[in-house]
Input
Amino acid sequence: MAGIKQASVARFKRKEAIIGIVGLGYVGLPLMLRYNAIGFKVLGIDIDTSKVDALNSGKSYIEHISGEKIAQACESGFEATTDFKRVAECDALILCVPTPLNKYREPDMSFVVNTTDAIKPFLRAGQIVSLESTTYPGTTEEELLPRIQEGGLRAGEDIFLVYSPEREDPGNPNFETRTIPKVIGGHTEACLEVGVALYEHAIDRIVSVSSTKAAEMTKLLENIHRAVNIGLVNEMKVVADRMGIDIFEVVDAAATKPFGFTAYYPGPGLGGHCIPIDPFYLTWKAREYGLHTRFIELSGEVNKAMPEYVLGKLMDGLNQSAKALKGSRVLVLGIAYKKNVDDMRESPSVEIMELIEAKGGVVAYSDPHVPVFPKMREHHFDLVSEELTETNIASFDAVVLATDHDKFDYDLICQHSKLLVDTRGKYRNPQVHIIKA
Output
């Protein structure tokens, strides 16, 4: 069976392999563009017909990925489809599907399981399956392995299985798919060897680990590290504020230490698909071993409380002007979860909007990256982005800076806001109408 492995490796090394990417979102689409750019034939597979139609028409639905790049990819051989039968054409199947939590903060593995079930009738000898979705340690072995072997193929001999977590950072100009090191764990040594061959052309640096479980845990540690440290600095923010200390000044000063300190800055809560969600995959799995992940759960409580903290600061500010939140017009600046992107997933800004509305406030938003409030599974506002003019800013009783996009005119906002609640430390000089939150 070594011949199957060697033939697979050779196909990747010669760039003769067809790369199948299942799930064409924030992770799958940049990966497609990278493989296409270096000369591989790429087939994109997604259950969303609108996405497939857009891509085949040379259009993009993600702001930081231009339609021009999609059109160029189509011209050089990229094709998108909803037909899972075409899995059989692919030499590699890279799964980039969502892994959300359900309302009980338990992993919702339905996308991973359903995708694996959809591809398994069309698997054949010589293929490699790589899962990139963030998940709990053991997922690849427990969910993917038995499914890909159902038809008689043996992992490590006939077909190859790896876990290689995504590390995309949308909106960060300092990194791209190629320059972010790629962690890979294989089900067997042979699986790992084929996995390295799959990714080595596309990624500058490959980091091999001993197992799929180790790779799965690596991704969780990366995100838990951030969640815990953000929780710590958010708690420090509350303490510092009560003491009359600017936490942003403190973090800046501490960051001058050349060793032993990494700067994390507070905010209105956690957003995005990773940091608010991924730590709880480990929390859930740890229960199976009779363990409690206390740091994770505590940081989750702190971070989850931040939108309420912002609401309290807003109400305090209005109260100083003898105004109630009920009936006040409040403009939320930035509803994407992080600066300079259009990604709304788990955005704390949306929770702040809901809290304002629940208290009787009249809420509006402005976000240069999100012109119309999108349809979301759990949130709905029939709103469009407000234009930031002198007159419009001044018409609101309060402005809440929730996401600090570079496109905002911060001087304009400051000069014409009646009350400005700053959750991002954008305004460092104390002013009567600015409240730090």
